TrEMBL record, chain A:
It comes from Aliidiomarina shirensis. The keyword Heme does not apply. Residues 2-75 form the DNA replication/recombination mediator RecO N-terminal domain. Involved in DNA repair and RecF pathway recombination. GO terms for cellular component: bacterial nucleoid. Transmembrane segments: none annotated. One of its GO terms (biological process) is double-strand break repair. This is DNA repair protein RecO.
Automatic annotation (TrEMBL), chain B:
Signal peptide: none annotated. The gene is recR. This is Recombination protein RecR. Belongs to the RecR family. Transmembrane segments: none annotated. Residues 82-177 form the Toprim domain. A zinc finger (C4-type) spans 58-73. HAMAP family: RecR. May play a role in DNA repair. It seems to be involved in an RecBC-independent recombinational process of DNA repair. It may act with RecF and RecO. Gene3D superfamilies: 3.40.1360.10, 6.10.250.240, RecR Domain 1 (1.10.8.420). The keyword Acyltransferase does not apply. The keyword DNA damage applies.
Amino acid sequence: MTRAVVLHRWPWQEHGLLLDLFTEGFGRVRAISKYARSRRSSLRATLEPFTLIDIELKGRGEVKNLARADSVQNFPLRSVHLYSGLYLNELLQRLLPEHTDLPGLFIDYVKSLELLSETQVIEPVLRQFEYRLLCHLDLDFSFTHDANDGNAIEPGILYRFVAGSGFVPAQIENEALYIGEAPAETASSEWLISGAEISVLGQFQLANPQVLKQFKQLMRNAYAPLLGSKPLRSRELLLAAVQNK
Amino acid sequence: MKAFSPAIAALIESLRILPGVGQKTAQRMAFQLLERHRDGAGKLASALNHALEVVGRCQRCRTLTEGDTCSICDNQARAAEGTVCIVESPADVLAVEQTSQYKGQYFVLMGRLSPLDGIGPADIGLDLLEKRFQDGGINEVILATNPTMEGDTTAHFIADLAARYNINATRIAHGVPVGGELEYVDHTTLGHAFSGRKSL
């Protein structure tokens, strides 16, 4: 028996489902449940996303057969919490290759679902998961040393963020930029952050709105090259929901 | 498929697009039509052609209908109710109609929001629905999308949209089937049934 959560599923033939499962121990696996959509099947609710299930997979091929599935715990999500859950699933679908087990990621994911179903505030949960996912993908970075020479981050200097490596001192003509120096000659759209702020981010005080906002900016920068030009559809839903409010 | 002449092979292939029809069933259907029911086959062909020509989408509720608007949208008494029931497909309209409990109008999404499949608000006609909200005359939307993750996503999204126009949004209840036994109902459904309990 393996613990798993359905990330997404599609109708398969007349009565079946093709499942994109996130499993503990095997990573993302595709499996078929032949009769899940038949009228008498009791599996329909079990195989909905955001439900922790115990499963048994059979078969040697790329696509497994789902031999058994029992529901363990359901995480009821509503409205923006539901869109946030979809966002987590979309991130995993886009960034986690199939059949790659990253130990601990499954527990982080289930923990995030649990938090989403219990708490009112969603953003810290999402940011936390985003950071944990980067760590599991070996794309984490230091909050205490720069990515150029490994020098300690200095509070007074401005840094830019390079996805995949970390913070590097922002420079104009080989001169470091200090706080208060307007970066007029660099691309004005570039995100710059002071060493002092980096140290604060490194403490993960995501309950603080200011820290949360900068952490979001950081995660945006970190994920941009990973996600490419194809936008996340669940993020569009989240944005529309915020506008509707 | 050498065994059949091209016309028969084409017919069999065409029949296979129907749900639940595989190669074997398609063959049986094709032979039945050509051998024993040639009249019926003619009628079927012309009915299919006629329906394809005249049936389109209702301009108000997007269900399948002949003409610009469907008979439910044209019904003044139903419009006066001020309720719109949101469903995923024309078949769902029929299902709700058969309950004989609902006297208002419908809006058929012809799908559901599914970000993981790339289906967004514009793909299910929510711009048209928002226009109906703007036009006024609606005091309640009943969200009768399926109790799946996508159906719930769609329902919450439309509820938020309705709130912007001060329209009350309700979701149909999910629970234990009539004549069912609690012991055999899955946790999730039973959970819904409990959270949606009513005082007697």
